[in-house]
Design brief:
Layout: H1 3-16, H2 22-31, H3 38-48, E1 50-54, E2 61-65, H4 69-83, E3 84-90, E4 93-98, H5 103-112, E5 118-123, E6 127-132, H6 135-150
Antiparallel strand pairs: 1-2, 3-4, 4-6, 5-6
Length: 151
């Protein structure tokens, strides 16, 4: 399954359960029909910026999002606002034009956003292409992008 859907599931699982170890997370993901290894989970944890915090309920450590997640998001939003020239939906695709040389950074930001229903994201020097299952999902996502950019 796609990295974005797996990482979305990880975020869901850590919000529902007190996940103490990577092995616990692997077990929960396998129970949810994600075929993963501990090495993959380790990379996902790093990419998502998860940390271990002390649980108030059990007194054990569990995975959670960092408190600086919103600060990081603000940096990403600023980067998107400054980098994107235009964007539009074409069938099940979103085509994003960026300042020359910034498409890779914009692509990486969209990868980290873990947008639902994204089948893949690719980029060139000044273009990012986001592929969705259908045009309805692409239209929904473009509204999210507009809200981010115009906020």
């Amino acid at each position: 399954m796609a990295r974005s859907s797996r990482q979305s599931k990880i975020l869901e699982l850590i919000s529902l359960y007190e996940i103490e170890t990577q092995d616990d997370l692997v077990s929960k993901l396998k129970a949810s029909h994600f075929d993963v290894t501990q090495a993959t989970i380790s990379r996902d944890i790093k990419e998502l910026g998860l940390i271990k915090i002390l649980s108030n309920e059990t007194g054990k450590y569990k995975y959670a999002l960092t408190d600086t997640q919103s600060q990081t998001s603000n940096k990403y939003i600023f980067m998107l606002k400054e980098s994107i020239i235009s964007f539009r939906v074409v069938n099940n695709l979103i085509v994003i034009k960026t300042l020359r040389g910034l498409a890779d950074s914009v692509c990486a930001i969209f990868d980290r956003l873990n947008l639902e229903q994204v089948l893949g994201i690719v980029n060139g020097i000044d273009t990012v292409l986001i592929v969705f299952l259908d045009n309805i999902e692409a239209e929904y996502c473009i509204k999210k992008i507009e809200a981010i950019i115009n906020n």
